[in-house]
Amino acid sequence: MVDELPRGIGRAATNALVAAGITALSAAVRLSDAELLDLQGVGPKAVRILRDSAPPPT
Fold first, then answer.
1. Dihedral over alpha carbons 47, 52, 32, 5 (to 10 degrees)
2. Can you tell me the distance from the alpha carbon of 34 to that of 4, in angstroms, rounded to the nearest whole number?
3. CA pseudo-torsion sign 50, 53, 54, 57
4. Staple partner for 13: which of 7, 46, 48, 55, CB 3.0–4.6 Å?
């Protein structure tokens, strides 16, 4: 699926996002870096991968 969370963010980050109700890349990238980093298990590397995986804004 195109809107899946990227596997490269790691299991801890994926679990943290899913626990917060965020199951799609499009939902994750709507959050600020600070909001993402506030989730236990999401670190700077995961945020960078999420941002790099998102399609450019249209």
1. -70
2. 21
3. positive
4. 46
Asked if 22 and 38 touch (Cβ cutoff 8 Å), the reply is no
Residue recorded with tokens 């899913």: 18
CA angle, 25 then 26 then 30, to 5° = 110
- The confidence score (pLDDT) of residue 1 equals 52
CA-CA distances (angstroms) from residue 14 to 3, 35, 40, 47, 52? Answer: 14, 15, 11, 11, 16
Q: Mean pLDDT in runs of 10 for the chain (58 residues)?
A: 86 97 96 98 98 86
